[in-house]
Write a structure and sequence with these properties.
With 297 residues, the protein is mainly alpha-helical. The protein has eleven helices and no strands.
Amino acid sequence: MGHLLPHIGLRTVKTGLAVALALFFADLRSSPAAIFAAIGAIVAMNRTVGDAFQSCRTQFFGILLGAGFGAVFVNLFEGFRYIGVGLGLIALILLCVELKLQFAVPLACIVFVSICLSPADEAFFYGANRLLDTSIGLATALVVNIALKPYNNRARITEQFTHFLQAVPAYVETRVICGRYPDLSPLSRQLARIAEELSIFEKQNVFRLPDHRTQAVYLRGCEQLANALLQELTALCAMDEKGRLSPENAEKLSALGLHVPDTLPAPPQSDADVVGNYHLSGLLQAYHYLSEFNLME
């Protein structure tokens, strides 16, 4: 029985390619520490290009600040290493906060300590080589990530909206026609997954392309409609009495393919009738708009 080959994702391939190229470029300049080029490439190879830019920014500023401070303090406090490291870390953290670079604090502190623990006459060259090699790795991974089919979850989001819409009629039938109370937690989880994917999609707009901004706004609009739909359905499920179904809403339910018994529709009379039909009308309107918008590409 043959063994099935494991699935190799594109991000895995791009990571291997980026590291290989980063090491090649580091060797071209005869780098004494090419490992930092490989580390930079690995760190920068994120799922989206936006996340990759964020990682590159953290790495670059962290190493720049840590190496710069380390080179200064290792010479100023030579012979008083412990005092120098303590004072340097305090000054470094304060500077990062002042420059609004808090995201770089952990890495800057690590690099700073590693510089301070190196011989004073080698501190500057160690820091400069580490910054240069890491920058080579970051730049290489960034180019590879952009050039080779950048991540795009637009189709996944559309598919999730479609699944959400397909599930709604059954919930409406359970509550409005059958008079039972469905469990809405699966719909809530679907919306939570959609929100997560939308956040990822928005991070893909690294170059601020107008078309991407338009798509992001459109998808957020669909999310708002889906949330409004769920809110109306939740309101219906919170009512002690669902009220009698109005003829207008009965006709709309029939258009969705739901079977509405002839004896069920009746003109609203009680408060429960009015409130129930109000929420149902809002639900059906949101469903209609979302169905139309979700077909747009």
